[in-house]
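lol forgot to send this yesterday, sorry. struct tokens for the thing we talked abt
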């Protein structure tokens, strides 16, 4: 699973100077906690953006701006503002990592990543873009445009569960197949939320460490 990360950007008459402060300076999780006005399951958070000039230039390249057009757009840098989501994409069995027939320089098979958005994912993304456009316009933005093709925060592929046939690790994040292997990052998520995953990953890591300590004390490692 990869969380969606679409955005809208606009130009303001007054100076914004959005690089002053963390990239996600203000966040709302409204659409994680209400179902009214939604045609999709799950939710998303959206937040203000403050990309540095090199990242902003790369975003303009993604729009097809080069040369004079890129330079003209970059002159607006201090008058730009944007909103960006972290969206909850649903887990799908067809989204997976498998081994390809192709080999790397060491003779090992390379990873094949199969991933696509389902209809629910697309409805969530469309809802978020429309809502953020209205929010940016209400704040006085003009020349508003959408960044529609972006993702963030890779999760899954080492799924936590209670059945070795359908998961990679158990509830303690211990591998079913390799007794002394413990995994405690975002890969164990069976689902992803509509928020940044860092705090959940930290909580899982602390819980796993506590479980290792408890099992070691009982001689069960």
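and heres what i got for the seq, position by position
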């Amino acid at each position: 699973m990869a969380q969606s990360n679409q955005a809208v950007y606009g130009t303001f008459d007054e100076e914004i100077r959005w690089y002053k402060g963390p990239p996600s300076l203000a966040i709302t999780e409204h659409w994680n906690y209400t179902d009214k006005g939604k045609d999709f399951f799950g939710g998303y958070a959206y937040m203000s953006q403050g990309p540095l000039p090199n990242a902003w230039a790369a975003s303009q390249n993604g729009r097809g701006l080069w040369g004079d057009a890129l330079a003209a757009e970059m002159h607006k840098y201090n008058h730009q503002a944007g909103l960006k989501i972290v969206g909850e994409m649903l887990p799908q069995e067809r989204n997976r990592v498998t081994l390809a027939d192709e080999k790397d320089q060491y003779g090992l098979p390379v990873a094949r990543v199969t991933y696509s958005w389902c209809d629910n994912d697309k409805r969530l993304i469309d809802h978020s873009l429309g809502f953020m456009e209205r929010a940016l316009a209400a704040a006085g933005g003009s020349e508003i445009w959408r960044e529609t093709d972006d993702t963030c925060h890779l999760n899954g592929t080492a799924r936590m569960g209670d059945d070795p046939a359908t998961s990679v690790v158990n509830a303690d994040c211990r591998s079913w197949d390799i007794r002394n292997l413990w995994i405690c990052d975002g890969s164990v998520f069976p689902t992803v939320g509509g928020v940044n995953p860092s705090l959940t990953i930290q909580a899982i890591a602390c819980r796993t460490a506590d479980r290792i300590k408890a099992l070691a004390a009982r001689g069960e490692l």
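The chain has four helices and nine strands. anyway ping me if u want another try
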